[in-house]
Structure formats: structure tokens, C-alpha cells
Specification:
Strand content of chain A: 35-45%
Number of strands of chain B: 11
Largest sheet of chain B: 7 strands, mixed
Helix content of chain A: under 10%
Number of helices of chain B: 0
Order of helices and strands of chain B: EEEEEEEEEEE
Number of helices of chain A: 0
Distance between the termini of chain A: 30 Å
Radius of gyration of chain B: 14 Å
Radius of gyration of chain A: 13 Å
Oligomer: heterodimer
Distance between the termini of chain B: 40 Å
Chain lengths: 111, 120
């Protein structure tokens, strides 16, 4: 029962650009709560990819970028590489639920 | 270097209480602004936030699980413990603990996770 909605899957050929949307509401993303993005490979620890909407932690390639507008946020991956094949989750805070909330998750497939 | 590691039983029976321990290094949970959270992921499903404990011992719980969860910390041992009562097969999941700071507030470092199966 995630309150942040993501497409189940996106795919692209190596070198292409893909985007993942994260749609929320006025009580989370629209309430100006920051959006964070995580990359998750099965069997491993989730990795912080983007924090506070647009910022990359040290060591994250600049192929990854984040944006936020209104009640939605997006993660873009440019120059898609085979190693980018993973699950991606957005995360924010919901003022109505008083809870940290994750998105439904998106599987990125490199064709 | 911050590291976290989850430990606990791999199998619990329905109605039992689950106790998970997060042992961390590289930071102190007595430092202002620091917190540790628990997040889980059922097989094939999305991540779900469970609980958070702050440096000042303030605590937050998922509203849907609040009555079943308790989070505590032992600063001297660098450990955070999560207990979940009345376990059910739907609670079968990989449970993660993660480090967080207040501003900004992502879960920036995660443990590898521990898989818990609920079955009789």
C-alpha cells in the first residue's frame, strides 16, 4: 500500500536515457518533503543514489540525476550501462501518515 | 567508515515475537541528529519503513504496525534492537537497518539485511 507510485518497469538499450517517475500527493512530495532515490540489487544493501531531490552522494556517477516538481519526482539515468540493471525506489515523508514512505519500485532492464 | 549489520533468527513461528539486532560502527547514536531506522522488504515486494530511533531516544513507528513494534538502543554497545510481536507469515521479509541524519534525511548507509521466514 505504497503512497508513492512508480512504473513497475522501464528498459533501454546501452547508452540510452531512461527516466523513472515517482508520483505522490500533497501530503508527501507536494508538501515539500525531500525525495530520495535508492538503487537495489537483489541480495545486497540498498544504495543511496540521490538525496534531497537532486543531490548525488560522493561516488555516484553523474549519469544519475534527480528532479522534483509539484507532487512528483523523477530519476534519470543517461548513458545506460549493464551495471545499472537493478530495482530503484523513491522515498519521502508523509505528513498525514506521520511515516517515511517508499515508492512501489521500478525494475530497470538494460536490453 | 559507517557499517551496520543485522542479526536475528531466520525462522520464527506464527504468533511468536521477533527480535532483531542492528550492530553498527563508525558513528555514535548519541551524536545530535543521528538516527537508525528499520526497513523491510517482503519477497517480490517494495521496501517498507518500520521504525526509527533518534539520538535523543525519540521514536517513530509505522502507523500500520505501531502496536506490534518496539525499537530501543544501547549506545554503549552500538546496537539498536527491534521487536515485532505476533508474527504472521505475511511478515516474511528481509529486514534492514539503516543510518540516517536529520538534514538532509535519507537513509544513507544500509546493512546487508537479514531474511526472516515466518512459518510453522
Amino acid at each position: 500500500q505504497s503512497v508513492l507510485t512508480q512504473p513497475p518497469s522501464v528498459s533501454g538499450a546501452p547508452g540510452q536515457r531512461v527516466t523513472i517517475s515517482c508520483t505522490g500527493s500533497s501530503s508527501n512530495i507536494g508538501a515539500r518533503h525531500d525525495v530520495h532515490w535508492y538503487q537495489h540489487l537483489p541480495g545486497t544493501a540498498p544504495k543511496l543514489l540521490i538525496y534531497a531531490n537532486t543531490n548525488r552522494p560522493s561516488g555516484v556517477p553523474d549519469r544519475f540525476s534527480g528532479s522534483k516538481s509539484g507532487t512528483s519526482a523523477s530519476l534519470a539515468i543517461t548513458g545506460l550501462q549493464a551495471e545499472d540493471e537493478a530495482d530503484y525506489y523513491c522515498q519521502s515523508y508523509d505528513s498525514s501518515l506521520f511515516a517515511y514512505v517508499f515508492g512501489t519500485g521500478t525494475k530497470v532492464t538494460v536490453l | 567508515q559507517i557499517t551496520l549489520k543485522e542479526s536475528g533468527p531466520t525462522l520464527v513461528k506464527p504468533t511468536q515475537t521477533l527480535t532483531l539486532t542492528c550492530t553498527f560502527s563508525g558513528f555514535s547514536l548519541s551524536t545530535t541528529g543521528v538516527s537508525v531506522g528499520w526497513i523491510r522488504q517482503p519477497p517480490g515486494k517494495a521496501l517498507e519503513w518500520l521504525a526509527l530511533i533518534y539520538w535523543d531516544d525519540d521514536k517513530r513507528y509505522s502507523p500500520s504496525l505501531k502496536t506490534r513494534l518496539t525499537i530501543t538502543k544501547d549506545t554503549s554497545k552500538n546496537q539498536v534492537v527491534l521487536t515485532m510481536t505476533n508474527m504472521d507469515p505475511v511478515d516474511t521479509a528481509t529486514y534492514y537497518c539503516a543510518h540516517r541524519v536529520e538534514t538532509p534525511d535519507p537513509f544513507d548507509i544500509w546493512g546487508q539485511g537479514t531474511m526472516v521466514t515466518v512459518s510453522s
